[in-house]
């Protein structure tokens, strides 16, 4: 196994405006919308921590203060719960503030995901780091990020998570041209295209919101012009890295993910995620599932 600097830091871009969820996100960050009783962003931080990344930088924007508050101590609330003897809720409230060492930086202008990642440069320094997008949730039973870090430790360079979709879905994502390796779940990434037309897509493998980036990406982002949508695209910077020599921090590998992923970036997928999580909760499922069956049956009859 090659000797590479270990991955210890995570970057979570959370500066988006959440326009798909207006008016709910007028004053509440979309990352704070609950999946049952826990905000979506907490699941993402828990994923980073479970992969050994306890140094987490949140890239935020205006009106995102509640994210910082969520991962901070809430002494008055804790005292009130303690006085009532409600230890279960007290533990749940404290859990988020004890997950990781949290840091925050603001993305002053909405210039795209590439720009958001570049905002992490001072904190990350010359170390490799993971990027986790808050819209994508990976099931805790599928240790995707852990596998990606293993691949980085083995090959160096950068690593992206890839998932196969139907041809009519590729135009909503970054899409990868890939070549096989000796490992079934690892590929060489030879090219990347941001949101291609279906006929221009090099494959059906799209980038989902997990990356392990070599620090060389910062120098590339410095020179990456605005791309699709007039924004600085992380996909474009990774495409450049894929064509660079490994000795310069180039080379991109992909991990083919065939597990459970939840997309909370639009209303329909968000609702599906809430229902799936509620259906698997032992404290909710015994009552929720019979009601759901009756509701669906009545709806079908109607």
Automatic annotation (TrEMBL):
EC code: 2.7.7.9
InterPro entries according to UniProt: GalU_uridylyltTrfase_bac/arc, NTP_transferase_dom, Nucleotide-diphossugar_trans
Catalytic activity: alpha-D-glucose 1-phosphate + UTP + H(+) = UDP-alpha-D-glucose + diphosphate
Domain Nucleotidyl transferase: 9-270
Keyword Nucleotidyltransferase: yes
Swiss-Prot/TrEMBL keywords: Nucleotidyltransferase, Transferase
A GO MF term: UTP:glucose-1-phosphate uridylyltransferase activity
Database matches in NCBIfam families: galU
Family: Belongs to the UDPGP type 2 family.
Name of the protein described by the UniProt record: UTP--glucose-1-phosphate uridylyltransferase
Organism, as annotated: Actinomadura alba
Upper taxonomic lineage: Bacteria, Bacillati, Actinomycetota, Actinomycetes, Streptosporangiales
